[in-house]
Specification:
By secondary structure, the chain is of the alpha+beta class. Helices cover 18% and strands 43% of the residues. The protein starts with a helix and ends in a 21-residue tail after the last helix.
Length: 148
C-alpha cells in the first residue's frame, strides 16, 4: 500500500528525524502535541505522534472547527506553518500514529524557508546520508545540538 500512496505525491520526499510540535487549535482548547517529522517535502510532511487525543478533542481529517500549526526549529531555520491533515494511520507494532500533513503556504517568506530547509536536506542526503538514507540532524526543539 505504501507504494500506492507514494505514486500520488508530486513532490520529492526526504527522510528526516526532526522533533517538532503540532499546535492544535479547537473552539475552546489549544494544546501543543510533540511530534516526530519522519519525511518532508516542499508541500507537506509525515509525522509520528503518540496520540490523536488532545484534551477533550481528537485530531480528525476535515474538521471545520479545528486548525493545526506545525513547528520545527532547525539550526538553519525555524519552520512554523499552518497545516491540513490529509491522512493518518496506526502502527500497532510501535504503538504510534502516522499522519500526513499538507503545508498551507500563505506567504512567500514561509515558502522560502521551506525551500531553504529542503536545499539543506537534499545536500545532506547526497553527501552524508546513513545506510537508511535518513538524515539524523538534530534540531533545537529536541535539545540535542551537538557541537561539531
Amino acid at each position: 500500500m505504501s507504494g500506492w500512496t507514494q505514486e500520488r505525491r508530486g513532490a520529492e520526499r526526504f527522510k528526516v528525524g526532526w522533533a517538532g510540535t503540532l499546535t492544535c487549535f479547537f473552539p475552546d482548547h489549544e494544546e501543543n502535541v510533540d511530534v516526530r517529522v519522519t519525511e518532508v517535502s516542499a508541500t507537506g510532511a509525515r509525522l509520528e505522534l503518540k496520540t490523536l487525543k488532545v484534551g477533550p478533542y481528537h485530531i480528525v481529517i476535515g474538521s471545520e472547527s479545528s486548525r493545526f500549526t506545525l513547528k520545527v526549529s532547525l539550526p538553519e531555520a525555524a519552520l512554523s506553518t499552518p497545516v491540513r491533515i490529509v491522512w493518518y494511520s496506526t502502527d500497532q507494532e510501535r504503538d504510534i500514529f502516522n499522519m500526513g500533513v499538507f503545508f498551507l503556504q500563505t506567504s512567500e517568506e514561509r515558502r522560502t524557508t521551506i525551500e531553504k530547509i529542503l536545499a539543506d536536506v537534499r545536500l545532506e542526503h547526497t553527501s552524508k546520508a546513513d545506510n537508511n538514507g535518513t538524515v539524523g540532524r538534530r534540531n533545537k526543539i529536541s535539545g540535542n545540538n551537538p557541537r561539531s
